[in-house]
Amino acid sequence: MTESAVIETNDLSKSYGGVRAVCGLNLSVPPSCITAFLGLNGAGKSTTVKMLLGMIEPSSGEGRVLGSPIGDPAQSVALRRRVAYVSENKRLYDYMTVEQIIRFTRSFYPDWRAEVERDFLHAYELPPDRKIKKLSKGMRTKLALLLAFARRPELLILDEPSEGLDPVGIEQLLESLVSRCAEGTSIFFSSHQIPEVERIADHICMLDKGRLVIDAAMDDLRQSYRQIDLVFPSVPDEREFRMAGVESIRTKGHQMRVFASRNAETVMERARSFYPSSVEVSPVGLRDIFLETIKEN
Amino acid sequence: MLWYKAWLETRPRFLICLIGITALCSFAVYHGDHQALSYTGADYYRYVLLSGHAMLCESWVLAVTLLMMGGLLREKVAGASSFTLALPVSRRRLMAVRIGVGLLQAFALAIVPWSVMFFIGSVAGKTHSITQAAFCLALLLGGGLLFFALALLISSLVEGEYTAPVVSFGIVIAIAVLFSDRALRVYSPLAFITGFAYLDRHTWLLTGPVPWLHLATYLLLAAALTAVSVKVIEWRQF
Amino acid sequence: MLFKLTPTTGQPLYIQLMQQIRHATETGALEDGDQLPGIRTMAEELVVSPNTVAKAYSELEHEGLLDLRQGAGAFVCVRRRVRSRQDSVYEARKRVGELISELREGGLLDDEIRRVFEAELLHAVETVARR
């Protein structure tokens, strides 16, 4: 997988003054997959993406996108032909109209897809003559998405693509992501919308305070994270459960709740040796995985 | 299409400046035609056209400074720089187009008002000589590009939608004030472009050969500032 | 054919899809020779990653339940064994039904019974997965 990873970073770091925005990031984004990039605001997601696109220079470490090194300005131009990007703020040129910016952007990409442009204009009800300055935030997002999706990129990098969209808009976005992925485009997107991520992502990368805390296939997360609720006549010491894979333990009265990222089986075996009156295992949704992981850090 | 973008970006500013300067200069010539006669014995229309040129020089410097506000740093403040920088274009190319469009506009801002002044003079039967007009334009465009490059550099260094113009205009005013001293006047780029140093007070004509060496020096300085601006943008983090 | 995948059950989506297709063949909702949408269409309909659908299809092809034809889509091939499987599913339902009434008589609420079933099934799946 490493050989053909579409995005690969090696100890990538960025500091602003003394503040470390990204530290020692080792990312490996698989090809032809939908990869979600999660993290709180300010976790370093946008900084990472900007480093990948050569907009800011890493303080240390290196990275490759579609095989070309990110620091090289000459290769970076060629790379940007193969990568489509929608930025976090979705700001475009206020002085252009919708039609003008489409014409402008189209001129850079010979493989522009007129049918996609038409479909998006229609589905998103974008007024061609309206000045971008007069568009609402949601409309601007839709326009930015149109400009990225009407191309044929090998890699699509989207920073918070669903922000400002209504539920219908989000659904259309997800469908577009699925279609692009089916065509072989690799997708790397950041989002706060956990339910949508959970549905379409193949792979999850989670960033917290500039560090990569989760890098796993969505299916593996689904299968390995478990919440184990135990009831004991006399509750054993929490230390008994401190083992590999246990992320957190909470005790209240006779109850104990163990949150495990793996090895749920071992936890249950240990629990049984203390004669619990009840053992319940339940799967953990991505939302709880996210919250627990962030909290633990 | 980058030219198209640079044009759309500056179009309102450029048109306002063009119309404004042309109107101002035309007014100066027209108004001067009525007023000047009483206190100058020289061929008054030459004087009139030269006062028009002086007016043009001042407003041209301000207009060019205003026009060169913009580019990636301004886009960074507005948020659109992420879009521009994701285009498959090098930063050098972006700068080149911006400078190209800026130069064309700067030339238009000098040539159009001068042509109109010349035309007004001709219509009134007070034809000025073409060589005199060309002399004035050579001084303005040669020396004036220093202000163009200065504005470009400041717009590449100073972030903030209003900070950059304030700093730029501040520097222009500072130059004007600093060099207004009699001793320093010879070195004043503003005095150079108005052409008063080459003016014969009896004939009200610009005399002597075109100061090519001076022009070359100013152009070289402008080129150096421009090169620094391009480097700054290439190094800059967005 | 309508499928519904639930992302939060702790079970990979491709397994859910496999189970639902299998179930559909067992109940007769899908019959021998029926065509399923292609990977892309199915992914767009369910709004899940195409890789999820691809994985489910290829696993089912491996099991012999689907026949993937390049460009033509996926076709169901239900063999005789499914018939006998249908009978065993029927048998299982009867036995589970009996067990449930027994548990109810023992004073357990439906909700508790469901939780016991789910916990045991999850446990079983994990034990199998670990081997």
Kindly describe this structure:
In chain A, 34% of the residues lie in helices and 28% in strands. With 297 residues, chain A is an alpha/beta fold. In chain A, α4 packs antiparallel against α5. The longest helix of chain A is centred in the middle third of the chain and has 16 residues, at 167-182. In chain B, 40% of the residues are buried. The model of chain B has no long low-confidence stretch (mean pLDDT 86). Chain B has helices spanning 2-35, 44-67, 72-78, 81-86, 91-123, 130-157, 163-178, 189-194, 212-235, and strands at residues 199-200, 205-206. Chain B contains 9 helices and 2 strands, in the order ααααααααββα. In chain B, strands 1-2 form a two-stranded antiparallel ribbon. Chain B starts with a helix and ends with a helix. Helix content of chain B is 75%, strand content 2%. Chain C is built from 5 helices and 3 strands, in the order αβααββαα. With 131 residues, chain C is mainly α. In chain C, α1 (13-27) packs across α3 and α2 (39-46) crosses α3. Chain C has a 3-stranded antiparallel β-sheet. The interface between A and B is medium-sized, with 32 and 23 residues.
How would you summarize what this structure contains?
Chain B has 238 residues and is mainly alpha-helical. Chain B has nine helices and two strands; from the N terminus they run H-H-H-H-H-H-H-H-E-E-H.
